[in-house]
Amino acid sequence: MSAGIGCRDLRVHAGGRELLSVPELHVSSGRTLAVLGPNGAGKSTLLRALGLLSSHRVSGEILLDGRPATRSLMRHALVAVLQRPILRRGTVAANVISGLRFRGVSRREAQARAWPWIEALGLASLAGRDARSLSIGEAQRVSITRALAVGPKVLLLDEPFSGLDSTTRADLLADLRAALTGQPTATILVTHDRQEALALAEDTALLIKGRIRQHGSTAEVLDHPGDADTARLLGFTNLLPPALTGRTHTLVARPEHTRLVLGPSDDSAEVIGTLRRTVALGVATRVDVDTAAGPLTCLHPGDLLATELPPAGSSVRVRIRHARPLTEMSLATPS
Amino acid sequence: MDVLFGGLADAVRLLLSGDEDSWSIIALTLRVSLTATAIALLLGLPLGAAVAVARFPGRRILLAAANTGMGMPPVVVGLFVTVLLWRSGPLGGLGLLYTPTAMVIAQGAIATPIVVALVAAALQQVDPDFRVQMQALGATPVRALAALLGEARLPLLAGAMAAFGAVVSEVGAAQMVGGNLAGQTRVLTTAAVLATSRGQFSLAIAFGLILLLIAFGVNLSLTLIQQRQAVTR
Question: Residue limits of the ABC transporter domain (chain A) (predicted)?
């Protein structure tokens, strides 16, 4: 019997449509799985189905520590943090202990158990504040602290960092990572952000259109897209079909690894195209090029002077510095 | 102005004199309207909560009916209750017409749609994922619903105040189903109407002022509870 949360043949239907189909998934205690997917991929649907929180029609088996999960078992094991921080009326401290209070812990004991988490997540100075007076970042910090204070077996995080400014997000991400390290919690983080997956999760699953396309260690999955959809999701937005490169496989490349060739060159591996537009992005300059096989995006570091770049409509050469072949990865659960 | 000041003086005199008739009118007004409000809360709270959080066929029709009921003229409600309780009506055998019970039924029917509509509105103002988040923290469905009611307690109290205000001030239904029988079904509104029709303006104003005082007193109590909860966070 393996500790953690999982599912077998999980399907979610709504309005006569199948929203999600996951043959198998398991997250062991002490590990974090990131479910990465674009908007509308079914990430939140998967999370709610796993937590027995879904309002849709769910079939299949949800497993908790290897056994079929009941609502009662799940209620004791699970805590979820939703995308919008939903706090109750009352102080920050009262909110942080509410998960423990729901579990029948006395107020005094709940306060004692929650206080180390309040300090660890940097909320001590806000403990007496009215929860309604918090900023969105502070409120999400309270929401996460409230979840951690319970010491759950299973922690479900539904895009908890979306909507936060970059500094708040980076701080909260680091604090959450530190808080989860060494905890016997099976954590599932739903996100569309690769950096969040890298920062928090040992394993990553790519969810597109309700199906898990790839599943493996985060480093491996993020760098080895198996098809065009996952390539786009992982930032490999340049697709180079065999007709363009002469290779046997379609190659994919990130814009930052794709550059215009500005000087003379005789490299036969370059791709010929027409410059469509250039956009100065401050720290980088984006160059869009149309090729026979579709558009390519180049990202040059720094603010390239317009004079360094040929005008729109010019014939240009593009060099791909790092490209990956699209290869199907196994969907097997990582050990 | 003499009439107004006379009315004020009469009101004070009535309250201080311990006049039995006046006190029985005041007591009956409170008894009927508070009982009707309590019944409306008992019926309206679960109905309004169901409309707000559950999904069932006819939910929107029920909500639209409740919203319509908020503007229902008391005299129309009085008419329906009178027909129901009329000697030859479906509930005529109970012999309730022209009793305080009939007035409670009529006022309850006036207040219930108000409570249903305001409870539904109050609960729907809270984040739609509130109950999911509470359950995802370990709350049972019942505790999650209780937490939702607690979260919306300020607008819920406002709903209770609106319901009481509507029934304590209505005259049409009380007159029709109660009959304004002295010592039996006479309440402040019907007493004020009678006094006015007899040209006893001072007495009518006195009843009106006492009615205002009662409405103010009950609403002040609820407002103090509401605002104490709003501040002591």
Answer: 5-234
* Closest residue on chain B to A82 (Cα): B133
Q: How far apart are CA B54 and CA B57, in angstroms?
A: 10
pLDDT tens for residues B144-173? 999 999 999 989 999 999 999 999 999 999
Q: Indicate if the pLDDT at residue B226 is higher than 80.
A: no
Tell me the chain B residues in contact with residue A86 when contact means C-beta distances shorter than 8 Å.
Answer: 127, 129-130, 133
The residues with which A26 forms a beta bridge, in sequence order, are A6
Question: Which 95-154 residues of chain B touch chain A by CB within 8 A?
Answer: 127, 129-130, 132-140, 143, 147, 150-151
Q: What is the pLDDT of residues B59-71, one digit of tens each?
A: 999 999 999 988 8
Across chain B, mean pLDDT equals 90
Please indicate if any CB of chain A lies within 8 Å of the CB of B27.
Answer: no
Reply yes or no on whether the pLDDT at B143 is more than 50.
yes
CA distance A330 to A203: 14
Q: B143: which chain A residues are within 8 Å (Cβ-Cβ)?
A: 102
| Cβ neighbours, 10 Å, residue A288 | 17
Q: Rounded mean pLDDT of B138-148?
A: 94
Q: How far apart are CA B41 and CA A255, in angstroms?
A: 63
Q: Which residues 149-178 of chain B have a CB within 8 Å of chain A?
A: 150-151
- Calpha distance B32→A230 (Å, rounded): 69
> CA–CA separation, B15 vs B24, rounded Å?
11
Q: How many CA atoms lie within 13 A of B67 on its CB side?
A: 9
Residue of B nearest to A131 (CA): B233
Beta strands in A54-161, from DSSP E residues, in sequence order? 57-64, 67-68, 78-81, 154-158
Residues of A in contact with B54 (CB under 8 A): none
Instruction: Report CA-CA distances (Å) from B55 to A55, A286, B149.
Output: 10, 50, 18
Q: Does domain B31-200 bear CATH number 1.10.10.10?
A: no
> Chain A partners of B147 at a C-beta cutoff of 8 Å?
88
The answer to whether B179 and B101 have CB atoms below 8 angstroms apart is no
B138:A91 CB<8 A: no
pLDDT of residue A20: 96
pLDDT recorded at residue A331: 40
| Residue A245 pLDDT | 78
Would you call A325 helix, strand, or coil by DSSP?
strand
- Please tell me the pTM assigned to this model: 0.83
pLDDT for B228 equals: 72
User: CB contact, 8 Å: B224 with chain A?
Assistant: no
ipTM confidence score: 0.85
CB contact B187 to A (< 8 Å):
no
Residue A99 to residue B138, Cβ atoms within 8 A: yes
The segments of chain A whose pLDDT lies below 50 read: 329-335
**Domains of chain A and CATH, by start:** 4-223 (3.40.50.300), 238-325 (2.40.50.140)
Check CB contact under 8 Å for B137 and A82: no
Q: A184-195 pLDDT, tens per residue? A: 999 999 999 999
Per-domain residue ranges of chain B = 31-200
